[in-house]
Amino acid sequence: MTTKFQDLGISSATMKSLKRMGFEEATPVQAQTIPLSLENKDLIGQAQTGTGKTAAFGIPMIDKIDTNSTVIQGIVIAPTRELAIQVSEELYKIGYGKRVRVLSIFGGQDINRQIRALKNHPHIIVGTPGRILDHINRKTIRLENISTVVLDEADEMLNMGFIDDIESILSKTPAERQTLLFSATMPAPIQRMAEKFMKDPQIVRVKAKEMTVPLIDQYYLEVQEKSKFDVLTRLLNIQSPELAIVFGRTKRRVDELSEALNLRGYMAEGIHGDLTQAKRMSVLRKFKEGSIDVLVATDVAARGLDISGVTHVYNFDIPQDPESYVHRIGRTGRAGKAGVAMTFITPREKSYLHVVEKTTKRKMERMKPPTLDEALEGQQKAAMEKILQSIESNNLQFYKQAAEELLEQQDAATVVAAVLKMLTKEPDNTPVKLSEEKPLPMKRENRSNDRKGGGYRGRNNNNDRGGSYKPRQGQGQGGKRPSSSKPKSNSYR
Ligand SMILES: Nc1ncnc2c1ncn2[C@@H]1O[C@H](COP(=O)(O)OP(=O)(O)OP(=O)(O)O)[C@@H](O)[C@H]1O
Ligand SMILES: [Mg+2]
């Protein structure tokens, strides 16, 4: 069943924006939450990654803004700076028809610039907890007229230990405000947050058989720690992703991996919470534009980021908890597009695979790591496909004379073989440095999903997260390896 936005009671000004954004039908989470939200109900919204939760809270929030007023009426709290920027951009687009003013404020940006921007009387603020609190304390933000508060990626903010900050922020808002919590994952501890901050919350869980999007093909590969890098490069060569994200467990890991990939001729850069804000934003921008095609990230870049064109996600290290897995692979397969996710598992970490599968209710398919020969063969096939595509789509007239000349000197098979060789990335043994990552502690299966007692584990090594931005414009042709237009994920099983 499809739902049209006009059946949800949205104003014509907002309808105009949605049309401009190319939104034709509401996604299930939008269809189910927008009417409730328009009635000012408190809500917990859980739906798969990439299914439009931002607009689900954004559309009704924007629709209720009184643009004749100059007070802040809505606030969205997000766990990372990049996500705050991305959400504010989406809200800006939704509010374009009504001329709603949206401002993002986050750490790592000049506070005086933010104070100046606040003087333009934004209707909605989108920000990270620390910086919002900072402005509240400086009295540069007043929240006494807030009618809607959204906690995007609520479970992650709990994870990151933002609960006290959020509580302080909420204590400055009117008690009769509407509070909305959204995430693709809502593990048990989120209930406590709901009880604390919400009034009779309606829980909307978009019914799905699996927690992950069916459009993402999920594989795992059993790989020894020391072979991981070779396997990764072979997969990259065979699958030639348009844009890929490689997740590593720690910041050091991300630094070493992106450096190693560069040494082997890939256009890769790393992103994690230790980089400056300017660097993080520039890495993301390059990735979106396609001037780098492999983004190496800690979980930092996982939550909420919406980058179109990400066709492959590689979990170089298996994530520590199933929620991270869901969010990591959810960077592909967004808004109805297909994607491929591949997870490397060292023999000692096998139990983690089962925990993930149990939580997501979906089995990953086993893929054999490609051997060197298979990798070369796979690339050859990709090169052949590329040549055939070129024959189909290009006007080759200009090259015909040179081709004839070559064929006068050599037989056809030799000439074509040479072209194939040039389109194939041969084994590259440039030495790289990659410290061994210790395997995760063994898990006893029967208690592996147990979150009792300690509640949520804080993540101490990657605090802030990655960014925003529009769909990338040009198609980067970078990288030394041949690229074929379609992922070849199914060649190895
Ligand atoms: N009704 C719609 N029609 C078409 N595209 C949509 C619609 N709603 C949202 N989108 C687009 O789908 C993409 C994913 O949306 P969004 O980032 O809100 O997903 P999400 O559910 O918040 O995912 P995550 O759990 O990863 O945060 C965005 O590019 C968004 O603009
Ligand atoms: Mg989101």
UniProtKB/TrEMBL annotation:
The gene is cshA. HAMAP family: DEAD_helicase_CshA. Residues 429-453 have a biased composition (Basic and acidic residues). A motif (Q motif) lies at residues 3-31. The keyword Hydrolase applies. This is DEAD-box ATP-dependent RNA helicase CshA. It comes from the Bacteria. Its main location: cytoplasm. It catalyses: ATP + H2O = ADP + phosphate + H(+). Residues 215-375 form the Helicase C-terminal domain.
